[in-house]
Structure formats: structure tokens, C-alpha cells
């Protein structure tokens, strides 16, 4: 019975570490250690890179949101790579370039995949600061200035914007409810990591980096935005999360598209972390190693711990009161997941149950993403699932 109890305590700790203990640790240390960024108003020339595949409904809005910002237009360049688009994306880009010939350039590629397209576009950048942006992103008026001022501090190599979900999809489905909650949780972690040392997670919708710190993305397996973040970290520069720079994501949320995104993100994330395995040298990288292990690796391992706990709970059921409680608590938990799934299918607005459904769905997707990576099925060719503008 002692061995069984030890297994239980270990699993509870391993599952709870990512969701509860790590945020608490960050909260405590972010109070003790607060490496403030030396912020100054600067206005260097900048370049936006956008890789687009069949974005006829989104690309013009993305470009307009850049042009409508309060950053000087004569210091903005926009380069778009149309990756094998078969819709009206290329025609729209041609029309926009006719109006803004000194700002917009675009290139048409055969279907290469996002990583290769970004590599090609980067060769055409001649500014010190590069912004990476998705077509379904809309930036607020002051986002560019809020991001840029961080680069007045030479220790900063990259800046990540804060994500705000904003779409006409008013249905409170599991994908929308869960994703909103997840990003609030994730934002807390990003802010705390930035205060202590550096953010170690990516947000591909909108971020900026110093061009001289970038390297070409080596293959189609790694995640493009996480690769750029870790390239900067490996060169001992900080990546800061800027909560005042808002990137509005306008695609509709559903459980299906969030699960699809999660599978790809996990597979690409694992490939990227393994590529930068040297960052696990805690004697050299210290806080970075601790953050990456806690923020990324434990998050990918947690779903397997959850499955293991469910299996041994069945195995140890009726072998002591503790395990009986564990079994029945999990039974209640998965019953709530089932109610969430039924309410999702029936269109009934039971938010609390949909949160449980989202939690299990994302953990299942994380397992599938791990399997995708192990099977070598990860690639940088994507299709947009769901939008709303």
C-alpha cells in the first residue's frame, strides 16, 4: 500500500506541477526578481513578413491593420509570400501594391510550406527589426510602438504581442470558451517569465525580432515562431512578452480547429525543443532551462500522466479508501467531460462542463501531436481552418 500511495503522490505532483505549482513558483520569483526593460520611444524602419496560403478573405484586412497603425508609414515595409494560393489572394495583393507601391512587395511561390516561404522572404529584408504576422491577425493602433520601444534595451532580442480573441463567432462553444481561459492562464506565465528573465513560449500571430539574431529555419519539422524565439534565446538575448501590444485573432473558434492547431503545435514544438536541446544545460542557461522544462516539456508530458493515473486508478480500485476516492473523483470528472461533449453537440450553453471538455480535448491533442512527431509526420504545410471577419 505504501508503494501505491507513493505512486499516487508522485502522479498528483507531476500533473499538478504544470497547472498549479509552476505558476505559483513564477509568481513568487517574479516578485523577488524583476528585470525591468529599459523602455524608450524609438522609430526605426521595420519590415512585416506574412506567409499566406489562400487568404483572400483575410489578407487585405491584415495589411490594412498595419497601415492604420500610428507608426510612421514611411518606415514600414510589408513583404507577403503567397504560398501556392489558388484563390484571389494574388489578385488582392496586386491591387494593394498598386496603391502602396513603396510599402508592399509580394512574391508568389509554388506550395513550399510556411518555413521555406519565410526563409525566402527573409532574404529580402533590409531593416534591423522584423515583424512576423499571420493573415488572421489584426493589430491595434499602438501595437507596433508598444513592441518597438522594448528594442531600446540591447538585452532584448525579441518581443511577443498579447493575443486577444475577437471574432463574430458569438457561440460559446468549447473551443472559444477554453481558448479564452487558456490564454489568460498563458499570459500570466509569459508576464512572470519575462519579469524574471525571458519568455520561452511563442505566439506566431504577431512578434518582432532583431534580424541579425535570426537563422534560416532548417527544416519543415520545427515550428517557425518557436524556432525564431529559441534562436534568440540561444544567443543570450531576452524575449519579452508585451501585454500592451494587442494582436486580435479573428478566426472562429471551435473544438475541432483548436484540436487541429494543438496537434500541429505540439509536434512542431517537440521538434524545435529537441533541435535546441543545448538549452537544457542548466549550468549555462539557468532560468531558460528551468522555464523550457517546466513550460514546455512538462506540458507535453502531463497528458500521459493523466492517462496513467486513470489506468492505475482502475487497477487499484477497491484496494484502499484513498484509491477509492481517486477512482470516484475521476469518474465524476469524466462524467462532466461527457456532459460537456453532449452540450456541445446539442448546442446547450453549459460553460463549466465545456471547459472540462476543452481540457481533455487539448490533452488528447497533445498526445496525438507527440505521436505525430514520433511518426515523422510533422510538416510546415498548413491549411486555414475557420475564420470570421
Name a few traits of the molecule:
389 residues; alpha/beta; Spore Coat Polysaccharide Biosynthesis Protein SpsA, Chain A; eight-stranded mixed sheet; 12 helices
Q: Report strand order across the widest sheet.
A: 3-2-1-4-7-6-8-5
Secondary structure tally: strands: 8
| Main CATH class of the domain at 46-251 | Alpha Beta
Structural class: alpha/beta
Radius of gyration: 22 Å
For the record, the CATH architecture of the domain at 46-251 stands as Alpha-Beta Complex
Task: Characterise this structure.
The structure is a single chain. With 389 residues, this protein is an alpha/beta fold. The chain has a domain at 46-251: Spore Coat Polysaccharide Biosynthesis Protein SpsA, Chain A. 53% of the residues lie in helices and 14% in strands. The chain is built from twelve helices and eight strands. It has helices spanning 2-32, 59-67, 89-99, 114-122, 143-148, 174-196, 224-234, 255-275, 282-285, 287-316, 321-346, 351-374, and strands at 46-52, 76-83, 104-109, 129-133, 137-139, 156-165, 206-210, 238-249. It has an eight-stranded mixed β-sheet, sandwiched between helices. α2 (59-67) links the parallel β1 (46-52) and β2 (76-83). α6 packs across α12 (351-374). The mean pLDDT is 89.
Compact description:
Helix content is 53%, strand content 14%. It is built from twelve helices and eight strands.
Topology:
Elements: H1 2-32, E1 46-52, H2 59-67, E2 76-83, H3 89-99, E3 104-109, H4 114-122, E4 129-133, E5 137-139, H5 143-148, E6 156-165, H6 174-196, E7 206-210, H7 224-234, E8 238-249, H8 255-275, H9 282-285, H10 287-316, H11 321-346, H12 351-374
Helix pairs in contact: 1-6, 1-10, 6-8, 6-12, 7-8, 8-10, 8-12, 10-11, 10-12, 11-12
Amino acid at each position: 500500500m505504501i508503494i501505491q500511495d507513493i505512486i499516487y503522490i508522485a502522479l498528483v505532483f507531476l500533473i499538478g506541477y504544470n497547472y498549479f505549482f509552476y505558476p505559483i513558483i513564477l509568481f513568487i520569483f517574479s516578485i523577488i526578481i524583476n528585470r525591468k526593460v529599459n523602455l524608450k520611444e524609438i522609430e526605426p524602419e521595420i519590415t512585416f513578413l506574412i506567409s499566406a496560403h489562400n487568404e483572400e478573405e483575410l489578407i487585405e484586412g491584415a495589411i490594412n491593420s498595419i497601415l492604420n497603425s500610428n507608426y510612421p508609414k514611411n518606415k514600414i515595409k510589408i513583404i507577403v509570400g503567397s504560398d501556392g494560393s489558388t484563390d484571389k489572394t494574388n489578385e488582392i495583393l496586386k491591387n494593394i501594391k498598386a496603391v502602396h507601391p513603396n510599402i508592399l512587395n509580394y512574391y508568389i511561390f509554388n506550395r513550399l510550406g510556411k518555413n521555406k516561404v519565410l526563409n525566402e522572404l527573409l532574404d529580402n529584408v533590409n531593416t534591423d527589426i522584423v515583424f512576423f504576422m499571420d493573415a488572421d491577425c489584426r493589430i491595434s493602433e499602438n501595437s507596433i510602438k508598444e513592441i518597438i520601444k522594448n528594442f531600446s534595451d540591447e538585452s532584448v532580442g525579441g518581443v511577443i504581442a498579447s493575443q486577444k480573441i475577437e471574432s463574430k463567432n458569438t457561440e460559446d462553444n468549447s473551443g472559444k470558451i477554453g481558448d479564452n481561459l487558456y490564454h489568460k492562464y498563458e499570459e500570466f506565465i509569459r508576464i512572470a517569465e519575462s519579469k524574471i528573465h525571458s519568455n520561452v513560449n511563442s505566439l506566431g500571430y504577431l512578434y518582432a525580432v532583431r534580424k541579425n539574431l535570426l537563422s534560416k529555419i532548417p527544416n519543415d519539422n520545427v515550428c517557425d515562431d518557436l524556432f525564431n524565439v529559441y534562436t534568440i534565446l540561444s544567443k543570450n538575448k531576452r524575449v519579452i512578452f508585451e501585454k500592451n501590444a494587442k494582436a486580435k485573432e479573428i478566426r472562429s473558434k471551435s473544438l475541432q480547429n483548436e484540436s487541429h492547431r494543438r496537434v500541429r503545435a505540439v509536434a512542431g514544438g517537440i521538434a524545435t525543443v529537441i533541435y535546441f536541446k543545448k538549452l537544457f544545460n542548466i549550468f549555462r542557461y539557468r532560468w531558460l532551462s528551468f522555464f523550457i522544462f517546466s513550460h514546455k516539456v512538462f506540458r507535453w508530458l502531463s497528458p500521459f500522466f493523466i492517462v496513467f493515473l486513470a489506468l492505475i486508478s482502475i487497477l487499484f480500485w477497491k484496494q484502499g479508501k484513498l484509491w477509492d476516492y481517486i477512482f470516484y473523483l475521476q469518474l465524476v470528472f469524466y462524467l462532466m467531460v461527457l456532459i460537456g461533449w453532449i452540450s456541445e453537440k446539442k448546442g446547450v450553453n453549459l460553460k463549466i462542463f465545456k471547459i472540462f471538455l476543452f481540457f481533455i480535448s487539448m490533452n488528447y491533442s497533445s498526445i496525438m501531436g507527440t505521436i505525430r512527431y514520433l511518426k515523422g509526420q510533422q510538416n510546415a504545410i498548413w491549411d486555414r481552418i475557420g475564420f470570421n471577419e
